[in-house]
Amino acid sequence: MREPEFTFELRVCQWAEREWPPDGSLDDGTAVLVARQLGTRSRRWDTLVLECDREALAARAVFGPDRLTGDLLHVVRHAPREWSYYREALPEPGYPWRYVRETIHEAAERGIVDTRRRGGRIELRRRWHYPDWCRRIVAIENKPDLDASAARRLGDQVERDVALGLADEVWIATRATGANVEPALLERLPVETGILAFDGGDASVAWHPAALAADEPGTRIVERPNGGDRDRSAARFEYADPDWKRAKRRELAERAYERGWRAYVETMRPDCRHFELRRDGGDVLPWCAAKGRTQTARECSGRCADFAPEPPAWRTRGWPIEGGPGKGIRRLLDRQRERARRPD
Ligand code: SF4
């Protein structure tokens, strides 16, 4: 039986964390952060690889492991060094100031800005400088079985990514077939898209991507004709402003920081007695002892016919891991996620 797409996706994430970039190496000042299943309201990518300024990434840690939303970023990035009235310190938000006040209170509760009241006015002061920690964003779409119809569907999606240029590079990760990726498939994909061919836990470049202009205006493809003989409709495009793109990239980076790629375990049942983490080459993958294979996040739920909760005795006295193996697995993955956020 072929490995499910979910397992392939976990392999891609782990490979990227170990090996990125595919050819050549990063300088010592760069660290890599990998996240899974993230994007904007209209587009979600399977894997995101963030190339980060190592020092700035370490400095980001003082703001805590939870993401800063777009509203919080507005406050934290512009909070002044010295006490100031918030309306004078922060740029015009483009929405009512009362929402900014709410965000300032939220930031103060999280301990990431200082606030005080002076003469009925709210003043704020930064606690730390918010670092520009993410240098590049690389989006990877995972399609282990890249046949003609998958390439056509992906081609349309990826064309939108290339036109918008929210990421600096776009790749497709697929399973190596032993032969070269068929030229007919390549023709269906935008030439700017890179292709990574995976053989187990190793990858090689089948096609190099072009760098996208993430700092420049992008084009949002809102609607496109279906291309049939009778289709005379025109495609509709929208302009994506560089400021909008910059803000979205920051929000995306923050969500990747919070989530990482190991959050998959949060929707699975590591508290099932059949749940294991197994090493396979350089990868560590969830394994279901009852099914005798890697399980998907979807099937590993309380509704699974083989689900068997770990006995209470495992969670109490006599078991070497506090809280039982399920809790132990979660803690282990959380620790690894935290380590990825704090490179040496
Ligand atoms: S038996 Fe079901 S719930 Fe238990 S680990 Fe396997 S897939 Fe998950």
From TrEMBL:
InterPro entries: DUF5787. This is DUF5787 family protein. It comes from the Archaea. Residues 320-344 are annotated as: Disordered. It comes from Halomarina halobia. Residues 331-344 have a biased composition (Basic and acidic residues).
